Amino acid sequence: MGVERTIVIAGAGIGGLTAALTLAGKGFRVALLEKAERLKEVGAGLQISPNASHILAKLGLRSALDAVALAPEALSMLSARTGDTLARLKFVAEAQPRDDYPYWVMHRADLQAALAAQVRAHPAIELQLGRRFDEVSSCDDGVIVVDRSGFDRRQHTALALIGADGIWSAVRQQLFPQAQPRFSGLIAWRSTIDAVRLPAELISADVRVWLGENAHIVAYPISGGRRVNIVAIVAGSWNRPGWSAPGDPSEIMAQFAEPLWSASARQLIGSADGWRRWALFTMADGGVWSQGSVGLLGDAAHGMLPFAAQGAGMAIEDAAVLASCFDGVADAQAAVQALQRYAELRRPRVRRVQLTARHNGQIYHLRGPLALARDTIMRLLGQRLMARQRWIYDWRSED
After folding, report:
1. Residue pLDDT, tens place only, 303-335
2. pLDDT (tens digit, 9 = 90+) per residue, 354-385?
3. Which ranges of the chain would DSSP assign to H, the alpha helix?
4. Which are the catalytic amino acids?
5. How many angstroms separate the CA atoms of 85 and 101, rounded?
């Protein structure tokens, strides 16, 4: 690809794939670099609220995702100790206040497959697997991006480079070497369970959250209800970088012992097919965004705790706003200004979401009298609790 109206994106995760489609929709040619030899999304379940699902729908993915996603009716908050429901918060009342865009739960691989299929079919996007971002330098036309595969190195000249390469971003490391991810002190354990292996009382169409002392569990159906996605968050010191390390089932069971955890919660944990774990790292509040003709997107810019279920959603929002800022850009100076505008628009909202996620985690993990007070307030407020996140769900892109 030549330099004329070309943008290079490093990273073909959910954010990078979405950005490729939104930028191609503005008339840009996109070189999408991915270090993996094949696209294989780590993780299992994913929640996509209307602030992000409306963008995917506008990209023409509504039918494909409706076929593989589920739209839960409510978020159920449960007591870890008793298993009782503290509050059942309906999504339809708050997550869809203005239109009919869904609150989806799905397997990450299903979303990535739908995005990748559309990327591969787009004539203006060149997906290059097995190509690792190596370095970037400035030039009169924008940037020179070098990628490699083994000993083979190639150059791209483009208006801009977008780093969508995750929390351990190589692009960010070159731009902002001082901006390093910070360990949160929390570890996420994830697994999936074949639904037929669970008793009827442990199967629900809701997103369910069990609240305990220094730990909580999130569970919801995926894969058309055939499987249940489960994520258990615990405090700990294990902090190996990366997204997926084997987890010992006996270790996770010990974290959810009686009497602090009900028999139903323990049965759910014990039914898992095997565990993977990852240490939760975050970026500074507000994120880091751009320098010259290079910008960052998604976790590379603003890795956050998952307790607002907005990690993927914020990356999808980033992609929409980035494309809107690049609308009409035709030269290197305009690209720099577009990236500056993108940062100005995204920083305040992302910071607020980061703070909300961290605050939610603190509330989830209260103990003693504070936990009792939380449970009482949840029972009293009920549906009004969901209204506190309406500002997240109600956001819509300009395009």
Report:
1. 999 999 999 999 999 999 999 999 999 999 999
2. 999 999 999 999 999 999 999 999 999 988 88
3. 14-24, 50-58, 62-66, 91-94, 108-121, 170-175, 249-255, 263-270, 299-302, 311-326, 332-364, 368-381, 390-393
4. 220
5. 27
